[in-house]
Amino acid sequence: MGILSRAVTGLALLLAAAFASPALAQSNEPGCRPEMASSRLPIQRANLGKDEVRLTFVGHATFLIETAGGVKVATDYNDYVRPPVTPDIATMNKAHSTHYSRAPDPAIKQVLPGWDPSGRGAARHDVTMGDLRVRNVPTNIRTYGGDTDYDGNSMFVFEIGELCIAHLGHLHHPLESGHLRALGRVDIVLFPVDGSYTLDQEGMLEVLKAVQARVMIPMHFFGGGTLNRFLTRSQDLWPVERRERPEIVLSKASLPAKPTIIVLPGH
């Protein structure tokens, strides 16, 4: 076999191995269907000011994060719910097929899986692109057989100037002191509230108390009923703001004085 043939064969095996783990994760989450995919309408928005960041809730666990320097990130990038623009960076988790893609857009510059596809341990990412730094904090997930897949997913942290955003991903367990130290100071937290496929709602309240972010944005709630149950549980802890649009522009200076839950439309 020639050198070129061996190289092509090696590349094919590498690509097959890269997504071997999530092939077993077939989504049983309700409402996760191709028709959930976002429309690809052109985005026409005002430019962001210095130190500002725009968050758009695309749906499920996917947010589009845009920096003033023009860097775009899609969280839990998958084949069902995608932003209407191609991100520069895509983060993924393998808990269900609605949290990762087996065929990410080849125009994406950095695809960051929240697990180590080789199975040798935890994923380790620390990437800087323009005015954005992305790093991950590994967490465990439950398998379909009820076992624990240690370091099987990640929380991703996005640092833009003085602003720190944490996406908790498909979190299945309470956070320990080591997780909190690794997260560091969090200004904005994006967290799942379904209470069944991820951590139960009471457990998520304890996570939010520990993280102490000034802005808390729920995701992964499938419908208004689940979201409202969570908001009822949290009503004595934090005020709630409901926005009419799925996007919000924030900066360090514009964060609310007190920790606040901000609900963006979507599911």
Taking all Cα atoms into account, the compactness measure Rg is: 18 Å
Q: Quick one: how many beta strands?
A: 14
Strand order of the largest sheet: 6-7-8-9-10-11-14-12
Number of domains: 1
Helix content: 10-25%
Q: What CATH first level would be assigned? A: Alpha Beta
Q: Could you please say which CATH topology applies here?
A: Metallo-beta-lactamase, Chain A
Task: Describe the global form.
Answer: globular
Q: What's the order of the H and E elements?
A: HEEEEEEEEEHEHEHEEE
Instruction: Please name the fourth-level CATH homologous superfamily.
Output: Ribonuclease Z/Hydroxyacylglutathione hydrolase-like
Reported CATH architecture? 4-Layer Sandwich
Instruction: Label the structural class.
Output: alpha/beta
Number of helices: 4
Report the mean per-residue pLDDT as an integer.
Answer: 87
The N- to C-terminal Cα distance equals 52 Å
Question: What is the strand content?
Answer: 25-35%
Q: Describe the sheet with the most strands.
A: 8 strands, mixed
Low-confidence segments: 3-18, 33-42
